[in-house]
């Protein structure tokens, strides 16, 4: 999604060749008119020698000025590039899956150290938490690492009527997420079921889809709570104005775009203290970013359900900070400086 965002913002400034290692090219629909070639490789990652040979051949055929790789799934390309063509290389690391939510896997730590410490490689990280990991656990030198925060189109998410708040009706707690295990939407549903007596005046809306949906719907039924499952959307700006509180219940994140979008829409955030979320939100919102364990998440959510004026004050402060610090134009300029 970030690549598609940057390619759109930079227009014809660059020519791109894209290899989707999972063979999913759905994002191409967002890139009409951008000069992009799409290449496909058919390889078996279990056959290390053959897949690496294909990667090396593809690099030789494409002959890029800059190689960009994303996350652990593309780490072999960093290794192949280091020991073969050694073109200028930018690796972007967004965060970790559930297998590394609590701690780094030692094998991956050593592989990252090896793959990302080449003299032609720059590692881009969107969170201060990832910076600490890269400099500490991965032992990368400070000169090889760049901090570039994520950005969103703040104008796209602006809600003109947010200043006055939503008129009347029930309080809507909402989230937008892919329904995967590490997002821990179950935590949000279980917390919502415990909100009392406010539960009678609050609704929960979950926007997104994924492998966990059936289990989450079953959990809501077992707990006896009404949860609105909206399903997948490419237009979060249609759903954020329907929310009064945005909730993030993840076990692992770094700098989630969903939080930036909710901030740009003028929403207060209740979140687990993962990644950089506590530093992303406004100072007024910081007290509502809490440890995932215990009752802190429940208490924070209950306080905001109770306090209409706090919701509006925090929402305004979040919108102001998003526009000042996290607009996509700032992010695009920093990437252009690095690539250029």
- How would you state the average pLDDT, rounded? 90
Q: What is the share of helical residues?
A: 25-40%
The name of the CATH superfamily of the largest domain reads Glycogen Phosphorylase B
For the record, the CATH architecture of the largest domain stands as 3-Layer(aba) Sandwich
SSE class: alpha/beta
Characterise the protein shown here.
The chain is of the alpha/beta class and 340 residues long. The protein folds into two domains: 2-152 and 327-339, 3-Layer(aba) Sandwich (Rossmann fold), CATH 3.40.50.2000; 154-325, 3-Layer(aba) Sandwich (Rossmann fold), CATH 3.40.50.2000. Helices cover 38% and strands 16% of the residues. The protein has helices at 2-10, 48-62, 75-82, 106-115, 128-136, 154-157, 185-194, 213-223, 257-264, 277-280, 296-306, 308-325, 328-339, and strands spanning 16-19, 36-39, 66-70, 88-92, 121-125, 145-147, 171-176, 202-207, 227-231, 245-248, 269-272, 289-290. The strands form three sheets. Strands 9-8-7-10-11-12 form a six-stranded parallel sheet, with helices on both faces. Helix 4 (106-115) links the parallel strand 4 (88-92) and strand 5. Helix 7 (185-194) runs parallel beside helix 8 (213-223). The protein is globular. It starts with a helix and ends with a helix. The model has no long low-confidence stretch (mean pLDDT 90).
């Amino acid at each position: 999604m970030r690549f598609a965002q940057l390619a759109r913002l930079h227009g014809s400034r660059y020519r791109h060749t894209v290899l989707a290692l999972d063979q999913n090219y759905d994002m191409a629909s967002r890139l009409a008119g951008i000069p992009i070639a799409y290449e496909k490789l058919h390889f078996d990652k279990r056959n290390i020698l053959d897949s690496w040979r294909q990667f090396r051949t593809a690099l030789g055929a494409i002959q890029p000025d800059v190689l960009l790789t994303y996350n652990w799934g593309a780490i072999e390309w960093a290794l192949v590039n280091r020991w073969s063509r050694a073109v200028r290389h930018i690796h972007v690391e967004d965060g970790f899956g559930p297998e590394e939510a609590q701690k780094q896997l030692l094998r991956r730590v050593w592989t990252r150290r090896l793959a990302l410490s080449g003299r032609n490689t720059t590692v881009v990280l969107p969170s201060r938490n990832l910076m600490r990991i890269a400099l500490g656990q991965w032992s990368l030198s400070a000169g090889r690492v760049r901090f570039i925060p994520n950005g969103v189109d703040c104008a796209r998410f602006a809600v003109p009527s947010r200043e006055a708040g939503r008129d009347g009706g029930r309080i809507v707690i909402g989230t937008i997420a892919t329904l995967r295990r590490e997002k821990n939407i179950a935590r949000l549903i279980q917390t919502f079921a415990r909100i009392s007596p406010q539960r009678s005046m609050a609704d929960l809306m979950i926007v997104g889809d994924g492998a966990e949906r059936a289990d989450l719907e079953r959990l809501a039924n077992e707990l006896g709570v009404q949860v609105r499952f909206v399903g997948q959307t490419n237009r979060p700006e249609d759903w954020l104005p329907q929310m009064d509180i945005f909730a993030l219940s993840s076990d692992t994140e770094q700098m989630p775009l969903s939080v930036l979008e909710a901030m740009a829409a003028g929403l207060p955030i209740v979140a687990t203290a993962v990644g950089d979320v506590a530093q992303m939100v406004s100072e007024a919102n910081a007290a509502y970013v809490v440890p995932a364990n215990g009752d802190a998440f429940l208490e924070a959510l209950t306080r905001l359900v109770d306090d209409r004026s706090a919701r509006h004050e925090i929402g305004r402060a979040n919108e102001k900070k998003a526009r000042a610090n996290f607009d996509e134009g700032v992010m695009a300029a920093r990437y252009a400086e690095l690539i250029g």
